[in-house]
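[Help] Beginner question about ligand-bound structures

Sorry if this is basic. My supervisor gave me a protein sequence and a SMILES string for NAP and asked me to "get the holo structure". I don't really know what that means in practice or what format the answer should be in. Inputs are pasted below exactly as I got them.
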Amino acid sequence: MDLSGKPSVTGGSVGLDGKRALVTGASKGLGAEVARRLAEAGADVAIHYHRDRAGAGQTAAAVQASGRQSLVLSADLAQPEEAESLVAHVRDAWGGLDLLVNNAGVAPVLPWEQIGPDQWAAVLAANLSGPFYVMRAALPLLRQGRDPAVVNVGSVVSFNGGAFGPAYAAAKAGLVGLTRSAAREWGPLGIRVNCVAPGPIESPLARALPAPALEAMKAQTPLRRMGTFAEVADAVLWLLSPAAAFITGQTLVVDGGRVMN
Ligand SMILES: NC(=O)c1ccc[n+]([C@@H]2O[C@H](COP(=O)([O-])OP(=O)(O)OC[C@H]3O[C@@H](n4cnc5c(N)ncnc54)[C@H](OP(=O)(O)O)[C@@H]3O)[C@@H](O)[C@H]2O)c1
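Answer (accepted):
No worries, everyone starts somewhere. Holo just means with the ligand present. The predicted complex, written as structure tokens, is below.
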């Protein structure tokens, strides 16, 4: 783990100026986009990664290019002690935390017949247990934070099931329950907790699906396309911002209208 960065110099545009944020899985993809956008909005960002140190370094460079401080921290969030150590490093470096984005996750395509105990446990650990352990460790910091807020990154599979199989869908559905439980108990402490549930995004993760499955998804989507990381990051930043000050325990679906509750 290392600490890098430079003093903050820019102002934020959505009320996140000067906030201290931790984004898990920020070495690439959606997490990297959220980290960059948080920095543009004036937040300092702790960039968590698992194996892709080079990717995390690129995200850190983008954060610093916005004039904000970055931390680059590795952890396997499937391991409870590593999740706790991740938060401890943020506490030791910054003395606190205001914003948490639980974005890290894995989505192997695992149909029922391919799921043994190890596969089931691994998918649940990375997508559900990791966010729980990070949230539990972060609670004492968030209680002391400035307008603290958490966003968990779920998926529309929590409502629809889908091509990645039951383990991923069950884990992401569990994340909705975790979000609601935390929102109910942490609301009186002044901490908001919400979830963003993207549909398929233009990404390597979605492109792992067979082409016919992707085409079917687009055909079932009123807006007839996949989303972008930027569009999902917009929703994450909005939920973290003062514009969403009276919203907690909600799951915001960002999927072009495929799921309508
Ligand atoms: N892409 C989509 O179409 C889509 C749709 C709906 C929901 N989502 C959700 O959005 C989030 C981001 O998706 P993405 O497409 O950006 O994914 P991605 O490109 O595969 O990135 C996943 C991130 O999670 C980290 N990670 C994976 N396993 C980990 C573990 N055990 N411990 C710690 N970190 C771990 C990775 O770290 P390293 O790379 O450093 O190892 C990486 O930073 C995920 O929660 C995903 O389920 C994605």
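A couple of things worth pointing out: The radius of gyration is 17 Å. The chain has nine helices and eight strands. Feel free to follow up in the thread.
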